[in-house]
Amino acid sequence: MNAEILAVGTELLMGQIANTNAQYISGRLPEVGVNVYYHSVVGDNPKRLKDCLEIALKRSDAVIMTGGLGPTQDDLTKETVAETLGKKLVLHEESLKKIEEYFAKTNRPMAKNNIKQAYLPEGCIVISNNNGTAPGCIIESGGKVVIMLPGPPSEMKPMFEDTVIPYFLNKAKSMLVSKHIRMIGIGESAMEEKIMDLIQNQTNPTIAPYAKEGEVTLRITANCSSREEGEGLIAPVVDEIRKRLGNTIYSLEDKPLYAVVGEMLIEKNITIALAESCTGGLIAEMLTNVPGISRVFDRGIVSYSNQSKVECLGVNPETIQRFGAVSRETAVEMARGIKERSGTDIGLSVTGIAGPGGGTPQKPVGLVYIALAYGDQVECRELRLMGNRAKIRNITALNALDMIRLHIMNQ
Amino acid sequence: MNAEILAVGTELLMGQIANTNAQYISGRLPEVGVNVYYHSVVGDNPKRLKDCLEIALKRSDAVIMTGGLGPTQDDLTKETVAETLGKKLVLHEESLKKIEEYFAKTNRPMAKNNIKQAYLPEGCIVISNNNGTAPGCIIESGGKVVIMLPGPPSEMKPMFEDTVIPYFLNKAKSMLVSKHIRMIGIGESAMEEKIMDLIQNQTNPTIAPYAKEGEVTLRITANCSSREEGEGLIAPVVDEIRKRLGNTIYSLEDKPLYAVVGEMLIEKNITIALAESCTGGLIAEMLTNVPGISRVFDRGIVSYSNQSKVECLGVNPETIQRFGAVSRETAVEMARGIKERSGTDIGLSVTGIAGPGGGTPQKPVGLVYIALAYGDQVECRELRLMGNRAKIRNITALNALDMIRLHIMNQ
């Protein structure tokens, strides 16, 4: 079965919010045998909404609509669907009672136009809403299914999980199971070249690469009749890819790099302290997103001024004078200094020029040094990055996390 | 002129990412006289992409496409557009040179399939890409315009701003000019109550409130024939709103709070150092996003362990023992300590429980203290926040920045 997600709301077309509902629904449907082929967004305009619905009904088996179920005049989803499918809207007493109760509970008077929310297309399956006033519904008509859900994610998600997922699971003959292989330290093209034969010979599972800033992902998707079967189809492909791409793979669970590294540190009980200059605390911020990290993360120093590099990290002022604050030598002393002063297993430092100012012909914007000190050893990585300040900082942070990852793996 | 944004990428249909490109582009186009009526998303499938493009060309004057310009086999946007419009793809030498230079600069070998990215539809306006390898383009054909941009936001945004915005501005007859008034320290309903009469009497410009995590924004939008006319319509409305909302307004330029505060510090030459516990470097990371901040930002300490609070900040171990690491007393000593040790004008500290673990009945998750030391004074703010770890950290950072802002304003 294939589906289209049709969101209704001028706020989406004005750019006030992103269509995170479509993302959420799209992430869940393949698991119950529904392939999402299209997303559409249209405003609160009945003519254009009707056109979009007609296109969707032509090309998709299921149309899942979000938004436009509110009490106001411009909320027209139900009216438009009913008209398009030739159904009447009838009062659903149970929904009306629920709406009245909702207002009573939240101590607010019920406006008259909320009654409109209790009218639903005849013969539909009602989806009750425990977190708001608009009920949703499922309508089967002419071999197609149209599902309407409210727009606020806090209302939509539980309704989707409690009613829509079981509805499709019940109908599913085949389903999709996916695995995401996340990699760092390799470009998209170089990665693809290593597995070109696998991509070209793919049938089931399929293999699809995509790139994000500083990292690449492979999505392996099996068409199957159960989760077990899907996992069985995917496993040998993942094994083969792991053989070819080795240590560049950092997650088979679609986890972000900082979470993988944070959990490795916690699991192996390796303590760490950070000395950041151009990343300005970004690496500390990422690592401290991981619950439980306080067991191994001791401290981070954002040593922006030269003085703070000397005072907080014990960098020799002569080193800065002679080689510059952005140099391999300074990075190494920063890493050693933070490790010694905090008494951790690892000390990691970053110094670089994130731009837009501060670059010279010898030391251009994008020049970054990352040093990792452990025992009496220090590793140092030099980067020459392109892009704006945010991109340089982000890719630097990913590289630093990757150095920690590889260090732990090679121990 | 009306437009449709057509995103290409199976990763969107699989729910791996949200369509934030459509949000960004939609937010900008009305300012150059283009109304967005539809968003569509389709996968890396040439047949379905062609169908979507044909629908878009029928109902929209301009079709802005994002994604599918990568070097890999499944990147088919250009090929499909060229075929649909009956154009040939021809090698664009300048783009090829740029791609080669990109690889040379970043010290990576160029894969053979990157050459494909330099082929563009004949007769198009080329949009060069300074942050990646895929050029974009603008094609005028049969009274319609098709624009192709790469999918990664860090590449798409500058290309859109530098080329697409001026392209439409040049064609615009009437346009929308917007001003965003950003506020902190007031709730959406309280803010709305103070200007309800203005909202109810709006015609041109219109006034629309919306809330984001920890802050609220008013969008004032004028329909006009020039930027000057629009600004003239907006100015008296902004003046009236400023009178009513005063110091809660932190930006009339749609700048994020950290940028406003960073620029205030730089302009007034007020030096600052940070001592962060539960925010884990988030405030340092935010402030160091501001170019030029190195003139006033001396250092930040992410003092996660109690030991680091004692060693790096000079907090009395007895204070931690007696009142706890999350207490007004510890926050005050942290702020004083970082100020004294770094010799800055301001020392700001944060300590709190971001969760999910670590809460007790006396000190629940969401309890946060922020202290700001200056001269021999200290101010301290206690917060009791709801939400997950990321939300608690973010709202804490916003509150800390707001304390700095109000402190500078009251000096």
Automatic annotation (TrEMBL), chains A, B:
NCBIfam families: cinA_nterm, molyb_syn, PncC_domain, PRK00549.1. Residues 4-171 form the MoaB/Mog domain. Pfam families: CinA, CinA_KH, MoCF_biosynth. Belongs to the CinA family. This is Putative competence-damage inducible protein. Gene3D superfamilies: 3.30.70.2860, CinA-like, MoaB/Mog-like domain. It comes from the Bacteria. It comes from Clostridium thermosuccinogenes.
